[in-house]
Amino acid sequence: MNEKTISSQDNRLVNILFAIILVIGILFCVFIPYGAGFDEEAHLVRIFDISGLHMIPNRGIEKGGYTLSEIFSLSYQRRDFQTPAFDQFLPSIFLVKADWQNMSEGITRSHYFPANYFLHGLVAGIGWRVFDFPIIPVVILMKIVEFLFYLAACYLTFRMLPVGKWVFLVTAFTPMALFLCGTLNADIFTLACSYMFIGATLEYFSKRDQVAAAYIPWKLLLFILLVGCTKPGTFLILFLLTILIRRPVGSKITSILLVVVMVISMTISIRWMMFSADDSNFKLWTPNSTVSNQLQIILANIPDFLRFYFSGIFHSLGNYYTGIVGVYGYWVGKVPTLVYILFPLAIIFALLAEKRNNLFQKKHVVLIVLVGLICFAEIAAFHFIAFYAPGTSNIDIVGRYFLPFFPLIFIPFAGKIEISNKFYKLPIILSFASLITCIGFYGYGIYRTYYTDCVYAVTKENPCRLPVYKNIEVNNPFIAHVTNENEVKQSFVPKCNELQSVRILIETVEASVEDEITMVISNDKHQILETEVFQVFGLKHRDFLEIDTNIQVIPNETVLWINLTMEPSNSVKADIGLLGRIPGAKYSDGELIINQENQDGDIYFQYTCR
C-alpha cells in the first residue's frame, strides 16, 4: 500500500484512526494519575533538573541538586492503598504549587540522555520556574505535549514508509504505547525517533534509484543522529542501514555522511551509557553490584550465563508479549483478556490489508527481521546481565522496552499475501475495528484500576477484596503480636453492603501443637457477628487467617471490629505476629488497639464483598 495506491476511503480510515488516537491519548494524559506510570517520580526529578538547564543527573546537594518535594508527596504510587484517583482533581491536590522553601534531595535513577526529556523540561521550566503554576496541571501538560510529538512522529513515519503503512500504525498504537504517552518517561522520545528512523531508512531504500546522484538524505541523517540520543541500547537499530548495502547510494559524499553520522550516533549512545553506568554514579538493580562487577562474574561463568540468559528469555516470553501489548503501571490491576486476543488479530488483518508489492526480496525480509531480533536480544540482555548470579534462574517482566523495534518484525511481511479486489477493503476495516476495540477494553481496564475501589475484575470466582494495599514494608515490618497477654483489635468501615469473608495476614508464628487462636468479628455495639477458632500450630509466614461471614452493613458507615485472642489453655510461648504498618494509622477509617491501648498504626486485613 504505497502512497499512490491508498484509496480515498483508506485515507479517511487513517484520518479517523489518528483522530480517535488523539482523543484517547489526551484522555490518558489527563486521567492516568501522576505517579501511576513506571518510575514517574524518578523521571520527573530528572525533568526538573533539565528544566533548570542541569544536564548531568545526581550532581549532589552541595552543587544545588535539589528537587521539588511535591514530586513525591503528590505521586499516586506513594499511596498506602490503591484507591480511586478522583481526588487528584480536588483543589487541595490539583492546585498544589511548588514549595520552593521545602525541597528534597534530587537523586534519580533516570539517567538517560537529556534529549529524552527536552519537551518535558521545556514545559516544566516555563510552567514551574517562570510562572509557578500548580504541579499537577503542568505534569498533565507535559504528557500532552510529549504525546502530540509522538503522534506527529507516527504520522511522519506513516507518510515516509513505502510499504507496511497500516501494520506500522497498529504496532505504533499498542495499548502499551498509549499508556506510556499518558505517563512521564523516556520511552516516548525513544519510540518516536526509532520509528522515524525506520520510516526514513525504508523510504530511502525504495527511492534511491530515482534520486539524483548528488542527493543527500538530510532527513535520514537527522534521524540517525537522534537515535543516538535515545535510551541505551536503541542504537543497534542503526544496523537497519545495512539494507542499503549493494544498492547505489548516490555520491561518495552521501556514503561518507551516512557512515560518519552513524558512528557519531553510536558514539553518543555508548559514551553516555558508559557514563550513566559508571560505578561511582549508578548501581545496577542487583543490590550492592556494579556493571564492572557483574561483567567480571559473567566472564568467569560464560556457559552458565548463557544457560541463564536463554532459559530466562524462554520463560519470559509470556511477560514480553503482555508487556508489548499492554500492562498497567507497576503491573497493578488486570488488563482485560480480550486486549491480548484482539491485538494480534489487528496485526494479522493489517498484514492482509496491504496490496501486493515486491519491494523487499527474501534477503531483505530476513535482514530487517534479523535486525529486530538482534535488538530484542540486546535489550533482554540488560536485564539478565544485571540479575545474573551463578547457578540461579530469573525471568524478565518488562516487555515495553521492545516497542522501538516491534514494527521491524511485521513491516517486511506486509503485501506478501494478496487479497482479491472483491475483499480488499475488508482486512483494513477488520484491523481498524480490532485495534480500536482492543484499546477500548484496555481503557476500561484503566478506569477499573485507577477509579474503582475493587481495582480488579469482579466475578463469582474473584470477588471484590478490600482494601487493596500498596507500599507495604516487608523487610522490617511492624508486627502486632497476639499472645496469652496481648489481645489485638482492628476496626474498619466496609465499602460494600454484604461481607463474604474477613482475613488477616500472618508474619510470624510460634506455637505448640495444642495452641489455638480465636478470631471474632463484632460491631461497634460489641455484638458478636462471627467467630472461629484456628489451630496455631502449622500456620506459617504469609498465611492468612480467614473467617467466612454473612454480614450485612451500611456501606461507608457501619464500623466492624476484628478481635484476636489466644485461648487461655495455650502454651506460654504461643505467639502469632500479624503484619502491620507503623508509624501513622495508614488505614484512616479504623484504629488498632492492643491491650486496650490505641496504636499509631494498623494491621494488614482484607474483607471480601459478596
Give a written overview of the molecule:
The chain is an alpha+beta fold and 610 residues long. The protein folds into two domains: 3-447, no CATH class; 465-609, Jelly Rolls (Sandwich), CATH 2.60.120. It has helices at 8-31, 40-51, 70-73, 91-94, 118-130, 135-160, 165-172, 175-181, 187-207, 218-227, 252-276, 291-300, 302-325, 337-352, 362-386, 425-451, and strands at residues 66-67, 104-105, 465-466, 478-483, 488-492, 498-510, 516-523, 528-535, 544-552, 560-566, 575-581, 592-594, 597-599, 602-603, 605-609. Strands 3, 4, 6, 9, 11, 14 and 15 form a seven-stranded antiparallel β-sheet that branches. Helix 1 (8-31) runs parallel beside helix 16, helix 6 (135-160) runs antiparallel to helix 7 and helix 14 (337-352) packs antiparallel against helix 16 (425-451). The longest helix is centred in the last third of the chain and has 27 residues, at 425-451. The chain is elongated and about 95 Å long. The two termini are 53 Å apart. Residues 1-5 have low confidence and may be disordered.
